[in-house]
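Components:
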Amino acid sequence: METPMSEHAFDPAAYEGRWQAYWETHKTFRSVADPGKPKFYALGMFPYPSGSGLHVGHPESYTALDIVARYKRMNGFAVLHPMGWDAFGLPAERYAVKTGVHPAKTTAENIARFKHQLKRLGFSYDWDREISTADVTYYRWTQWIFLKLYEQGLAYLADVPVNWCPAQGTVLANEEVEDGKYRETGDPVERRMMRQWMLKITAYADRLLDDLDQVDWPESIKDMQRNWIGRSLGAEVHFGIAGSDARFTVYTTRPDTLFGATYCVLAPEHPLVDAVTTADQRAAVDAYVEVAKNKSDLDRQKGGDKDKTGVFTGGYAINPVNGAKVPIWVADYVLISYGTGAIMAVPAHDERDHAFATRFGIPIVQVVSSPEGHDVQAEAWTGGGLSMNSGPYDGLDTETCKQRITAALEADGTGQAKVNYKLRDWLFSRQRYWGEPFPVVHLEDGTVQPLSPDDLPVALPHVDAFRPTDDGRPPLGRAADWVQTTWQGQPALRELNTMPQWAGSCWYYLRYMDPENTSLPVDPEVERYWGPVDLYIGGVEHAVLHLLYARFWHKVLYDVGLVHTVEPFTKLFNQGMILAYAYRDAAGNYHAPDACEQRAGKTVTFQPAWQTEPVTTDWFVKASGEPVHVRIGKMGKSLANSVDPLDIVDRYGADALRTYEMFMGPLEQVKPWQTSGCEGVYRFLGRVWRLFVDGDTGAVKPFGATSREVRKALHAAIKETTEGIEALKFNTPVSKMMELVNACGGELPSRADAETFLLILSPYAPHLAEELWARIGHDHTLADERWPAWDPAALIDDTVTIAVQVMGKVRGTIEVARDADAATVLAAAKAEPNVARHLEGTTIRKEIVVPGRLVNFVVG
RNA sequence: GGGGGCGUGGCGGAACGGUAGACGCGGCGGAUUCAAAAUCCGCUUCCGAGAGGAGUGCGAGUUCGAGUCUCGCCGCCCCUACCA
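Structure:
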């Protein structure tokens, strides 16, 4: 059945492995700090080595970075392009709980697999710098950095509410909780106060916000971080409580509306709820607070404006600006975790307060002028205006009024200007086994002592079971010998919590610079050369947490003198997700893309069981001929549409996969995988092969003379490739190289031009480029060759085709000399038959000549 | 609700304010082949037999000229959310 292929036919499998071995043995891509060279640090977000292996999304950003890295090397840069593993994490631990297999074993296996897969894609990593966050030689420095944080007063223990899952006996991260249940198992999750390590990221809020201005990041990501930090400028205002000396404080961004406060609201958890509640309201308030406590945050937010709930406490507050008595309510739309957990409610100028006031019949008093026709009784006016009903402040614009009222509050001690943040301190402990142990001990007197850096590392002890202990302590409690220790001669207990997965990824980019260092996380001298990361590419899902945490640590390390810049990642770029088509039959079953085919012209309509609308399609299951509905979605098991990158490598080779992933479309865009498109790229690479290699003899075909047309295509391709890589637009260069090969028509140009083509092809398809480079007589890799320059003169033709428009519509084209003057062009344009026809009987009012482009006649 | 992004052929996508649809897929036709695969060449936005006309989500506007700029809608995607 198998036709024996000519041994000289295009066969990537025949040489790709050989070149990967060559690069490895020759250490072609070793990063060497060279003070005589500019440096470039290209970094991809390192993967979590999951059990399911590499997916087709990984090679997208990795290929883009690899192209940049190879390009920069050829442009004389010392390039740092490393790879490693975000190896601590939950899936391995969960797997361990289920199967008893130690996470270290699972993780090592997964890393081996990932590494094998990545190597088959031919990325130019310096594998000597490989790191793993779960390696004790790595995490001892994560612990070292924790000690620095502690030293700086940025790490502390606090009792905080956490997501406690009784069934699992552990605390869950917010993202693991959905609808009050553990996402994986559906076990209920409750709020519980626990003593936890916190990192004081809020101390860096202003710097994290302000320094965003100095980095070259997508504006959308900066905005997401800004929103997350959520700095707002407002005022804290103290409200007295009628009939009591106590007072409570509210936070507002609109102190100018203070005269419009017609009630106050305390969050159900607010400590003063009890004190302000009167006897006759007590039962109602207690009941309300009890219900609110058991509601998850999500449930509390679900209702939106329509059905806000709340209960009057019976108590009254005194508005400090006018002494007015306003009722105090308790309502769960006020969150204890934001601001002061209490608000003054101004229904005329806040939508939430308006909805609440309307529902409970509370007066709405307008204190800021609204536009003509806007009735604040019907809808809140949240914009600015002139103050009214505000005593001495009447007539002031909103900004001025804010300042005056705030100043007045400060003068009489009833309030002050206040900057507030949404950003919370970072909950930094997890009741997990598979993470970095904390370098601290607990003494019998209840104090906590940080270890000396000399005592590091605190190695993760071996345990055989990974569930919490029977008495509810974290899994590390099982390592009894490890837990019992001494500190300066005193008996001490080790910390049973571990650090969250974010910890290791907060500084890995630094370790790559100096992975062998045994006395510091990174030598500041080395960092001064390689840092900061010049280009960081990763998924948008890390837009906030990872990137914010890493920036925070970096700033702390800057403050202690370890790094020399305030920001770690100069340029950030987000690749778009790769989606895939999914094929669903009438019964609702999904079929693998490989099992389906399009039969053009065989369109049928069928009635699926899963929707009322009939479906028209020309896609069918190959084997059964069943029609299938085609849709697009995330790759995954549920749609049966995953594509394994190594299957693609097996069929088409690594170069085709790499080049196709770039050819699909702009890197930042979400785009669907189409294996047929990959095949198109494979064909292109085959044409390149056949351009150089005689299919019968395997000999290199003779070089010829470069035609003018080929020369133009070549220089257009050099230009596009160069500018494209610089601008991270990787798709159009592939088109230009295709055009070049098409222009060659199967005949090699001159040796010099053929070599130039291989050089610009090499970042995309390095194996093929190396193979052909060797076959035409080179005995050394092309990775160190000089990137070619294009000749602008080669792009210019002697004659140009010019479009001729009449009233903006193209009516014909003319061929003129490139440097023809306007008069000549106009004459030729008017002579064009179809143009002449459209000009007939009209008066030319205006003649527009765009040299080398077009002519437009305005007639009337 | 807020923030960001996107709407172009059958499909993925190209287009300094200047010939819309490069390049690729798919399709059609041809060459090669005993035949097929592979390969090579040509055609392929839509309507129309043709001349020609229409055309970048919809509607206005600016301009000699708009996929591109402005305003207003419609639709889709992502993020975020009672943040006071």
